[in-house]
Amino acid sequence: MPDFIDSPVLSPVSVPPALAAIEGVVPFEAKYHAYLSDESRLTGWADSLSFPTSTAHVAEIVKACCQAQIPLICQGSRTGITGAGVPMGGHVMVLEQLNLIRVLAYVEETETQQATLLLTVAPGLSLAALNAELESGFAHLIENDVVGDAAALRAVNETKWFWPPDPSEAQASIGGIVSNNAGGICGHRYGRAGQHVAGLEWVDADGQVWSIHRGEYVFHDHTCQTPMGDMLSFDPRALGLSANADLVDVLVGGEGMLGVITGITLALQPAPVCRWAIVAFFHQDTDAAAFADSLKTDILDARYSHPLVALEYLDSSMLAAMTLQRVHMTTLQSLPLFPAGSQAALYLELHHHDVDAVENWCETLLMRLMEAGIEEDAMWAAMDESEYARLRQLRLLAPEVSNALRLQRAMSSSSGDPAVSMSLKIATDLKIEGSFSETLQRYKSHLYHPSNGTERVAYTLFGHALDNHLHLNLLPDNSEAQQLAVKAILHELVQQAADVKLNAEKKSTALACLPQSLSVEHGIGKLKAAAILPHLPAAYHDAYRQLKAAFDPHGVFNPHNRLQAYDCFVVNPPLTHAGSHSDAERHATCLYE
Ligand SMILES: Cc1cc2nc3c(=O)[nH]c(=O)nc-3n(C[C@H](O)[C@H](O)[C@H](O)COP(=O)(O)OP(=O)(O)OC[C@H]3O[C@@H](n4cnc5c(N)ncnc54)[C@H](O)[C@@H]3O)c2cc1C
């Protein structure tokens, strides 16, 4: 969660007349400053705020905002890293009080699908709270006698269930995770959040509540009727979806631009019986990449049966940052010291319903690591649940350690005033086609000056080797030169990911896949818009324009997301209340109004 930054002097505002009579809507005051930013550290402004306590309450506020044309920005836990939940004026609706787990239903196994337990939750529920409930075997639901029917109760008693998406920020809300279509460490195996959503409830611009389930609204021949009666007419492949996409998949990833989600039906799976992990340290990052490539070849054909669910890469900068932060982070202290001379690490996670399968594969992997020259003391293995949870922290802490380092660097290069030193967090979320070794090489070619081999900007690099999907965290100091270098690196990498994708496949297929390559799991929000939007095909923008017209005809839901004009770097500084783009400029550059 964003730290509480010393509040600037905010000019007193009063609640707009249209919202004044609604219970719980308050004027924005300095004490709410944390609600002006997310983990990207982009900071905006707002006129009013609410913490609705029911769907009816949400509907009342949404309706009033729409009638008065007041921008409405909904927030989950503000852990997003693209500024998507940061307001640029208008009303902030914080959904953290809508956090109930509501009802369960059991769906029997069919020929094509394994048994599923459906669980409906409110959007403000955190991933941590959901996982605690699942770990406890639904203790809270059973205690309150709201488990659902007898079949659901039997399923709860007989099986342990889990919801596969696992973004490493457990405080993120389910509403935010679904609105970003977030992924996580095991995304290669389990996919992204949307794949595990069976239905959605949302409040539309008129304050009406809608609810759909998978299978009810599906694209056929490039058309799909919405529950409101509008006809969408585009090829969903333009959005990176399948030709027969479900409307649920279209709404997932909406970044708060298509309505306020008030209920999510999650499709749970039986939890794997066995979860083990291995960490291997390498003296050369090229050796780590080559080992990752050799494993990728093996498991390519067996994606859904192979126990290896995650293969995560941490480079030398990440390991060095962790060593530096060890003194401050007790969780890091629970891990052994890294072997001397380590330049890269691979974190391997294995899941299966058959313990023998995990055991056999664990042995095979350790053997292969030894054959690759990794010595015994450079391999850690976790072969029970508690050891697994401890070892997993190595990968889970990577973003947090990067954040801590970024803050330290910014503080040391500024006056020491935290408000001054809040440089933006820029983390890439790109998938670059090719082997992992090639991908790594491409990243490095953008990170160092070709003339003298020095770093252009300090960074940490980690991510999903099985998908060539890395998170590069750029850690500039506050100098203008460094901020410009960050911007240049981001644009170069996006350009490269787009070029490689277009060259790798036939143009038509590649165009369809571009949205999924340039912004895999973090969304586009405000910070990525200028870098990514120009690369997306016209068909993508046309599809989004239609969605906005159908789901947000008044243009009030998070209207400042995905605007190419918002290039929030030093050359075009973050918008402030006084220095915001003029309305005329905003309308000229807004793609979706
Ligand atoms: C340390 C750290 C690790 C992370 N690790 C991962 C990772 O491994 N994988 C990954 O994919 N992401 C990761 N993320 C980013 C991740 O996308 C966010 O953490 C999460 O998805 C955002 O959830 P939130 O509740 O904080 O949403 P917010 O930041 O509050 O909002 C995000 C967007 O969702 C919209 N939104 C929120 N709730 C609703 C709603 N009810 N209806 C409509 N729109 C809504 C907002 O308007 C905004 O556009 C990480 C972030 C951090 C800080």
Automatic annotation (TrEMBL):
Biological processes annotated in GO: lactate catabolic process
Major enzyme class: oxidoreductase
Keywords: FAD, Flavoprotein, Oxidoreductase, Transit peptide
Gene3D superfamilies recorded: 3.30.465.10, Uridine Diphospho-n-acetylenolpyruvylglucosamine Reductase, domain 2, Vanillyl-alcohol Oxidase, Chain A, domain 4
PROSITE patterns: FAD_PCMH
Similarity section: Belongs to the FAD-binding oxidoreductase/transferase type 4 family.
Protein's recorded name: D-lactate dehydrogenase (cytochrome)
Organism expressing this protein natively: Photobacterium aphoticum
Lineage: Bacteria, Pseudomonadati, Pseudomonadota, Gammaproteobacteria, Vibrionales
